[in-house]
Amino acid sequence: MKVGTEAFAPLYVTLGRMVFGTAVLAGVLLARRERLPRERRVWGHLAVAGFFLNALPFSLFAYAELTISSTLAGICNATSPLWGMVLAVVAVSEDRPNRQRVAGLGLGFIGVLIVLGAWQGFSGQDPAGTVMALIASFSYAVGWLYVRRTLTGTGHSHLSMSGAQLLLGTLQLAVVTPVFAPAPDSLPVLPLLSVIALGALGTGVAFLVQYGLVAEVGPTTAMMVTYFVPVIATAAGVAILGERLSWNTPVGALVVLAGAALTQSPPRRKRTRRQPA
């Protein structure tokens, strides 16, 4: 997103991301000869999911990163599981967290703060950009909880559901983007390649995997993937861009992994006393 917004308006970065993500899933659908859902009810729910999981948060993050650091954006993104935990309690869903999972989520977030070196402070950050990033993170939590409650057990494959959702999100952005953003007058190679990679890998492949995770372990635990984003981004920066590796990165990564493992551990079952005959 950072590289893409250097040449394109944020909405066009988001639209391009959606187009290339949809293209990847469309190609896989054709290769496997799978069909998109046909029920109107499913398409209606997918339109809502496409808005909360794609069109809205992708656009907000793209705009937010114009004025805030990637460090702060990463921390805001990592709050998704915490928003999800709050929503799970409010919505009284079957995915309500127990003490063990709450501890794991909290430990994971502490690990993210360690990786990003939060104690260094965020002076000079834009409040509006921070709010946009937090709203985007909250939108992810709303979207995945909505998917779990409305689209689980439809009988359609994760590939079919992901493809339809991205298609609907792309159509929503295709209507809005030309109205609110100036069209690019050129296509620089590096920003264009960044948008293609963001769409094909960070959207198409990622959402195909995420649908399976939500169905298997629930939205709160599935959103733990946002804790790994800053860890992987830091590792890629060191390996590819030659960025400096400080002590807090590997230490924080271990804390993140410990938190993730804690959320996956099965809770202890309460012993039941036998009633005397």
Structural write-up:
The structure is a single chain. The mean pLDDT is 82. This protein has helices at residues 10-32, 40-64, 70-77, 80-90, 99-116, 127-150, 158-180, 189-217, 219-222, 225-241, 248-264. It has 277 residues and is mainly alpha-helical. It is globular, with a radius of gyration of 20 Å. The chain has eleven helices and no strands. It starts with 9 loop residues before the first helix and ends in a 13-residue tail after the last helix.
Output the keywords.
mainly alpha, 277 residues
Short recap of the structure:
The protein is built from eleven helices and no strands. The chain is mainly α.
Helix/sheet category: mainly alpha
Radius of gyration: 20 Å
Largest sheet features: none
User: What is the succession of H and E elements?
Assistant: HHHHHHHHHHH
Write down the overall geometry.
Answer: globular
In whole angstroms, the N-to-C terminal distance is: 67 Å
Can you tell me the residue ranges where pLDDT is under 50 for at least 5 consecutive residues? Answer: none
- Helicity, as a percent range: over 70%
Kindly report the average pLDDT value. Answer: 82
